[in-house]
Amino acid sequence: MVLTNKFRVFASVLALTVSLTAISACSSGNNGGSNSNAPATNDSGAATEEAKDTITALLPPVSANYQSNFDQMEADFNALYPNLTLQIEPASWEDITQKLDTQVNAGSPPDIAFIGSDGISKYVEQGMLMDITMAAIPEMIGDFDPVPLNYMKNGSGLYGFPAYMSIHALGGNKQFLEEAGIDWKSVQKNGWTYEEFREAIKKGVVSSGGTTSRYGFVFATSGVTAKDYLNILIKNAGMPAAFDKDLKYAYTSQNYLGVLKAVRELIDDGSMPKELSSVDAGKRWNMFLTGQTMITGKGLATFENSAKTNNKKIEAGDGAVEGSVPVNYVVLPVPTFGADPVASAAVDGYVTFRGKKEPTEEHKVNVAKAAYYLASGKIAATTNTELLVEQITDSGRTAAESLDVERDPDNAAASQRLQSIASPARPDIPAELGAEAIKLEDEVIIPKFQALLADEITPEDMFKVLKEAAVKAFGEDGVVTD
Length: 482
Prior knowledge:
The chain is 42% helix and 16% strand. By secondary structure, the chain is an alpha+beta fold. Among the domains are: 3-165 and 347-420, 3-Layer(aba) Sandwich (D-Maltodextrin-Binding Protein, domain 2); 240-253 and 261-275 and 430-482, no CATH class. Strands 4, 5, 6, 9, 10, 11, 12, 13 and 14 form a 9-stranded mixed β-sheet that branches. It has a two-stranded antiparallel ribbon with strand order 1-15. A hairpin with a 2-residue loop joins β10 (206-208) and β11 (211-219). The longest helix is centred in the last third of the chain and has 23 residues, at 431-453. 44% of the residues are buried. Residues 1-48 have low confidence and may be disordered.
């Protein structure tokens, strides 16, 4: 059964743009009028042509048809702002970080890059982000839902606009879940503990003669997904962020060690493949579509659409993943580890950068216009509808009014529940601490976690190495001890 969900009606993006123009024209704005969309005037009051400016953006394939619309996006932006040019450089998910860091290190990053909000502190610490607090007019700010907008802040600065807030959950094969006797509807509504989850995925294993043809659970842990698995689990073990409210590094808690032990247990049980450390995002999804696992992670809302698309290809006998089976996709929460459930929220968006040279106030205003244009209205509506995630702007909800979204009602309800317990933003974490935590993750956690998955190091040894590195980075008084 599917549910056709039409988003609520708000003022259209065109109407919003006209409204911004009218309001800005009669207001001094945040920069002495430099953020007005109205034509500039000279001392005599005669209209003058606004200065030409080019805004550059580095953008990955955010949704299925996103990159194919770049030419139209550039043209529509120029139609809104004839004096401005939006120049988009495409990137893949695999190479965008390398491309961006190369440009940042050269001192000439793009004005806008689509990245995860968790990377903001890293670039703030490097002094390469553009604070658009004064450039973004109130009507822009007011268009966004507050929770995802807060993810784009660090300290008192605003460093771009969010595109979406996507919940990282798990995904199950309905048929396999029911064959294993798992009440997936109850799990969607009430969640499950780690112990319940561990027993459930054991039931999903199909093995004969020492060969496993189906695992209970598979999670991608290689490549760009190397840190996802651990980050999702620890949020449900009382560590929703790398630092607690007292700004002490949280991953030195014994709860963290408990999660590391659980990761090994699931592999040693035979519920997950021994070769888990080599499973990347593509292989993870193929294993799910071909019936080699009952539950997969991380599960994104858009996977429901992807499964339906593959089902149609199976029926047509054309283009389906080789060896795939029909799949009814089920949204499932992550198990909890003795703590209140917290959904891992990924807030990605259009982060604003600056080069070594201080940008002019006019350029900051223009970059804010471009970032807002990309994050709202028609572009946001189309992108988020393809991703099956909620709209987070009023203008996006407006533009999405005419877009029909087919979604399983149980999955829609489960996603909304998870959205309601999403981990909150932590703009209070100083940039230097956030950057140091990212460094610790890249240099210690990820390589040691890969070794743990490959059974080359014990959970206790990984935890010991991490704790020593954390104390060195933050001091004895700067880490959690329990």
